[in-house]
Write a structure and sequence with these properties.
Structural class: alpha/beta
Bound molecules: adenosine-5'-triphosphate, magnesium ion
CATH class: Alpha Beta
Radius of gyration: 19 Å
Shape: globular
Number of strands: 14
Largest sheet: 10 strands, mixed
Strand content: 25-35%
CATH superfamily: Ribokinase
């Protein structure tokens, strides 16, 4: 089983309007609701690929109850910690001409006690998990150490981990030695205060992170090249050229794709190829992190991988 951890989920509403007129009242033609949050996206894509998983993290209030219901409807297994604060909502307005405008509510605060409760909950899931995936941002400073604590206890029990976060939460988790550290280029630059301008910069970044005991580092950049490294090999991967519709969750789909590969004992290069293909498939569709195995398999042949020396 794979456990995904989302500290900061969101109820994602998409409101369809013909055209937004600022300062005026408009009627929507349709609304859609989905559960947002990085770890939840990984869980959705894993579920679609038939990989057993459970989503945990913080949820609260009536919005949290709705999230539980929506996850049940999607057949995504869940084991969230209930917190006193209300889970945030985000509204995305889609206009007839394709323009997209989004407003996300601020996250709720969690208490130190709630943060400790989540670490305990994940600890109980570790013996049944092959991987723990720690994805996304933290809703409040009290939770900034949660990923670090989770990765530490998983590592101590020889359970593999993914960290896909940024800023302090990510920096805090690095010393706990996650198996995989995944960031996009902007997140890397913001988190570590270093620019990735040329190949040499990626090599320096990987030297530093792998030197701290991380097994695999990946830096993505949307449609541009992915750089990935382990202690024995480094790759520059060119994503397929696609018609991008909605790139949200492409990184999350990539992680789910990689975990699919590991679950089937593929070698590292095939794991990366399938992950990149899963990211590209996601970007092709409006729906987030729900690509079919057939589409990802077909996309793989359009991924090109070069080994860096
Ligand atoms: N427009 C695109 N064309 C082709 N592939 C894409 C595109 N956008 C994303 N991908 C694929 O998905 C991978 C991850 O995308 P991206 O770098 O946007 O991740 P991210 O910023 O972490 O996304 P998120 O956090 O929303 O999941 C890319 O490395 C690439 O393989
Ligand atoms: Mg991401």
């Amino acid at each position: 089983m794979i456990t995904t951890v989302t500290l900061n989920p969101m109820l994602d509403k998409t409101v369809y309007v013909d055209r937004i007129q600022r300062g005026d009242v408009q009627r929507a033609s349709k609304i859609e609701m989905a559960v947002g949050g990085k770890g939840v996206n990984v869980s959705r894509q894993l579920t679609k690929l038939g990989i057993e998983n459970v989503a945990t993290g913080f949820i609260g209030g009536e919005v949290g109850t709705l999230i539980e219901r929506l996850l049940n409807e999607e057949h995504i297994a869940q084991d969230f910690i209930r917190v006193a604060g209300m889970t945030r909502e985000g509204v995305t307005y889609r206009e007839g001409d394709g323009t997209v405008t989004a407003v996300f509510e601020p996250p709720h605060r969690v208490t130190h006690q709630e943060a400790a409760q989540l670490v305990e909950r994940v600890n109980a899931l570790i013996p049944r998990s092959s991987w723990i995936v720690c994805s996304g941002s933290s809703p409040s400073p009290e939770a900034d150490d949660v990923f670090a604590a989770i990765v530490k206890q998983a590592t101590e029990q020889s359970v593999k981990t993914v960290v896909d976060s940024y800023g302090l939460v990510c920096r805090n988790a690095v010393p706990s030695k996650p198996t995989i550290l995944k960031l996009n280029k902007d997140e890397y630059e913001q988190t570590f205060g270093k620019k990735l301008l040329e190949q040499r910069d990626y090599h320096n970044a990987f030297d530093e992170l792998l030197g701290q005991g991380i097994f695999c580092c990946i830096v993505t950049d949307g449609s541009r090249a992915v750089y990935a490294a382990t202690n024995t090999q480094r790759w520059k991967i060119t994503p397929p050229s696609i018609n991008a519709v909605n790139p949200t969750g492409s990184g999350d789909s990539m992680i789910a794709g990689m975990l699919y590969g590991y679950a089937h004992d593929w070698d590292q290069e095939d794991v990366l190829r399938f992950g990149v293909a899963a990211g590209a498939c996601n970007a092709q569709r409006w729906e987030v992190a729900n690509s079919s195995l057939e589409n990802i398999l077909a996309m793989q042949s359009h991924v090109s991988i070069d080994t860096l020396t």
